[in-house]
Design goal:
With about 350 residues, this protein is of the alpha/beta class. The radius of gyration is 26 Å and the shape is elongated. It contains 13 helices and twelve strands.
């Protein structure tokens, strides 16, 4: 039977270096007492020779810092959310932090459990996107843990956040369709009780009203923010009058929509134009490539981590500009004429 090797302790390092355990601790923790350089080098050489690894938990108890951040997201399978998580992980690592992921699976009860779990682990800060923009801020604030929301929330909550003006972004995306001359423009949106859905519907309405177009409530197709949702709601849409253009309020819905349209021989953009919200690299490599709202994910991740690092209890909000990435799906590159 194979025996596991004995774990190396500070006592082993002290014996190898010919010093006391206390001196080893001063070297490992860089204090609180100074150590002569020659002695310090002996301890470092002993650490390397013995393969000693400092106990991170013990160090955290002494310093009050765990070198970890918690990230809570609604659904990591969403390409936009996974892209943001990747950028946050990369940025956190630059600052010597490890990112612990909590995926709530679009479930508010699970979201609360994840928050409690991460707080019990005494993470140094939380990065948080709530399922429906009704976050458990009180729970976090009671713990005194720094928190940065990755989405707009009610200003009364007095919490730091990085945001993009989603109503304005939805307006710009829909306006691009009206500028093509399209008049019959429908929207595929998320669940209507969600605040981000309401923002995106409002932006769609703003653009139609600015172009003196009628807002048809029957052309608001609500579904989940998933490929399946986009696919199924498009099949429902095809049972009625076909709009000339569509605004899908997330990338996954747009992918599902394209599948349903293709199955019915409806070409994008020749028969129906399409724009969407929250593009990732997948939008560019799709066929047709998607015209879509892009958020500056890397800049947002850098700012979010910096806000946690410099957190002093003051609620800050940082708003970012967005871009409208022009692809083939809106008709720009295919010169479609009405």
């Amino acid at each position: 039977m194979k025996l596991h090797p004995k774990r190396v302790t500070r006592t082993d390092v002290a014996k190898e270096a010919g010093t006391s355990v206390a001196v080893v601790s001063y070297v490992v923790n860089n204090g609180p007492r100074p150590v002569a350089e020659a002695t310090r080098q002996r301890v470092l050489a002993a650490i390397q020779k013995t393969g000693y690894r400092p106990n991170g938990i013990a160090k955290a108890l002494v310093s009050g810092m765990t070198q970890t951040y918690g990230l809570i997201v609604p659904n990591i399978s969403n390409p936009f959310i996974s892209s943001m998580a990747h950028a946050l992980q990369q940025e956190a690592f630059k600052h010597g932090q490890i990112l612990l992921l909590g995926d709530s699976g679009d479930d508010r009860n699970r979201e609360k459990e994840l928050i409690n779990n991460l707080l019990h682990r005494q993470v140094d800060g939380l990065l948080y996107t709530s399922v429906d923009r009704h976050p458990y801020i009180e729970l976090i604030q009671e713990s005194g843990t720094p928190c940065v929301m990755l989405d707009r929330v009610d200003a009364k909550l007095n919490v730091s956040a990085i945001i993009v003006n989603e109503r304005l972004a939805a307006f710009k995306a829909t306006q691009h369709l009206t500028q093509h001359g399209y008049c019959d423009i429908a929207i595929i949106c998320g669940p209507r009780d969600m605040l981000n859905t309401q923002d995106r519907i409002a932006g769609w309405c703003d653009a139609l009203q600015q172009a003196n177009l009628t807002v048809h409530d029957e052309w608001i197709f609500s579904t989940d923010y998933t490929r399946t949702g986009g696919y199924e709601v498009t099949l429902e849409m095809l049972k009625g009058k076909l709009p000339r253009a569509l605004f899908a309020t997330n990338e996954l819905q747009a992918f599902g929509c394209l599948r349903a349209l293709s199955e019915h021989g409806i070409k994008v953009p020749n028969d129906i134009a399409l724009v969407c919200f929250n593009a990732t690299q997948q939008s560019r490599f799709n066929f047709p490539s998607l015209t879509a709202v892009c958020q500056p994910i890397d800049k947002m991740a850098k700012t979010a981590i910096e806000m946690l690092k410099t957190w002093n209890g003051e609620a800050l909000e940082c708003e970012f500009e967005f871009d409208l990435q022009i692809g083939e799906s809106c008709g720009c590159s295919s010169h479609v004429k009405e």
